[in-house]
Amino acid sequence: MARYWINGESWVEVKDAEGINVVHLSVDDKEIRVSSGQTILEAVARMPGIGNIPALCYHPAVKPYGACRLCTVEVSEDGGSKSRFVAACLYPLKEGLIVKTNTERVRKLRKGIIELLLARCPNVKRIQELAEEYGVDKPRFVLGDQDCILCGLCVRACREIIGKSAISLVNRGIYREVAAPFYAYELSEDCIGCGDCAYICPTGAIQMGPDGKAVLPKVKIPYPEIEAMMQRETVATS
Amino acid sequence: MMEPVQELLKNKVRSVSELENLRQSILRQRDPSRTCISVCAGTGCRASGAEAVVDAFTDETERREIQLSVELKETGCHGFCERGPIVVIRPKRVFYQQVKPEDVPEIISETVLKGNIIERLLYVDPVTNEKIVYEPDVPFYKRQTRTIFGANGEIDPRDIEDYIAVGGYSALSKALFQMSPDKIIEEVKRSGLRGRGGAGFPTGRKWQSCRDAEGDIKYVICNGDEGDPGAYQDRSLLEGNPHSVLEGMIIGAYAIGSHQGYIYVRNEYPLAVRHARIAIEQAMDYGLLGEDILGSGFDFTVMINKGGGAFVCGESSALMASLEGEIGEPRAKYTHMTEKGLWDRPSLLNNVKTWANVPLIIKKGADWYSQIGTAGSKGTMIFSLVGKVNNTGLVEVPMGITLRRLIYDIGGGIRGGKKFKAVQTGGPSGGCIPEQYLDIPVDFDELNKLGSMMGSGGMIVMDEDTCMVDIAKYFVNFLKEESCGKCVPCREGLTRMSEVLSNITQGKGKKEDLALLEDLGGILRGGALCALGTTAANPVLSTLHYFRDEYTAHIDGKRCPAGVCRELIQYSIDLEKCEGCLRCLRACPTGAISGEKRKPHTLNQGACIKCGACYDVCKFNAVIRQ
Question: How close B63 gets to chain A, by Cα (Å)?
Fold first, then answer.
């Protein structure tokens, strides 16, 4: 018998059905059983009232990616003696797993990540809300003015759902941004103007333009030397 | 009449006895007493002009018509790059260093033909001032244990017969005909070999897990995407002894049941790419690779994939993404790559050095191998010893050697008689270890305890003139550029860390900055997606731990104790000591120094760019740096 939580307050006792693969785990001290083959985030998202896992780069329609790290939770595979941070959106459920979604360590880590995101995108409403929830007042860094958090949802939606790959993440590290092939900000014929990228964008960084095509966010990096480099690259590729 | 070796090679080598016959006939053709001029043509020596030396030897031997009696061998890296180009004359192993093309006629006429030693080309031990004639007596080599690297000086990497002559591919024939796959894995497990790429995961366990993984198609991958600043041991191994790596891969493939392998090597290593390619072609020709290897019925092929030079592609999941043609970004490894790796198939990835250890373990046995090293780390490790040491180069030592022996006995101590300050191990994500830990044994676990790591074997030595804040900034900037940018902690965290460190080195640091750096370090360690990110804060956290006073000097005192951070230092001329020699005046690129001969000079602060040229040229210590 296992306790199946219907929501944060009530549960029912259920017997494991034969022939169905289930895993038993504990989430924030509540024992639950769910069908195997899911990630922590998928399982918890279906159980209202259990766990508190924020996520920015996750969307059920595309494959999990693990970029924003906000869904970080603490898990223990050995009954609680050792625990570690994992990304809930990617971690596959295992029998006997103990998950803690909102410990002090987890909250501290998320708070730090939100501070970094807020410093990059101080004007994005979704991030301002998260900052308020996690008690981030004012970032301790020089503020940027970007809208794009580089979660890659637009790129994944365009590739996985639409099958077009009209946009991609280009470059690496601090130079990373969303761009069309050959580093163009103007979209090519590959873009069918479906608006999927704009719809899925968690920060509103992608908007639909008057010509029916998406307008990509221009990443504005607050470093003069990088801007100089970007300028050179644009010249070289145009 | 056909030579016996060619006779044997009309068909591929198809059995153990044919391989042994081939080896014997190669050895019969070779006269061990014949003079062999072995010129190091590794990348280090090439940079110091080894190719011209090789050409000069070719011309000179042809001119004197002795090319048949004297063998000229272009080998891989000998390790002592500081003294290149290196020439060793066998069989006596006379060791000449910093050889120039103009020295070649004399080497031929004196040493090769008459057996005389040319004094001026000998290596002088800086400690005893003694001239050393023979290679094994050079302290740099004498104190090493060169089990993996040793053959580099003896073989031409482009000639498979050289490798076979020194016992090459005998481990493969032993593995294929005398051992079952399980027995091989058992042997690797018992040897205690741990991955040489950085994390130090037990190699045998990795192999077991890949063997046990379900799937018909499995891959074997050699990670040659070495990208640490100052590290080149994987490069030198692939350049100097590619067959040892290949042999290890074939044994690994047989053990886990794989038929396709990849060598991922960066395109910036053209010689490594070329030599690996030649090695694969020759091994195919000889029947040691391809279909029905040595007549055993086992098939295995290897392809080379040239990496574009992203540091992050050395991370196994990013490397596999790159092999698949995707962006080189790491993925979460909650399911091991041994179960779901390249194209979601079970994949066995090991570092170049790990693969090169395998033939040795199979040939000599796990009992022999596990005698070398410490309880938790077996075998030898190749370090690239660079920075402010006298003898920079590649050194191979048993695990457990102390840092002091490495830096002082093999490295010859600190350059210019300066004082040791710290050593950074494990590449850009390693930590800086201060003087009080010089006597710890170097192995995976001890380095981790000190907040550093083994990494791929980088070892950068720093002297008293190094500013630890500046060093931390350097590594953070490197990683900031090399981070793939996928996850927020790494991309944003490193950018901000670099911002804070820049402020500190420019005298704009605030008291709260230290706590901020520690917070950022915690976010990276706990939150980043891959090992690049989780270890990226090591240089900052370790210097904060061991050299905190240097940070506070920058922040509170607005000064850089090592005199490195330009914004925080000032040069001036001590009028008492200045002899008026005009040296600094001539060296100054901005004309900030004025004065007449034999009269004390003056320095105009407004025009000074703090380059330190005056400080470096002054013979009277009259330039003061504060």
Answer: 51
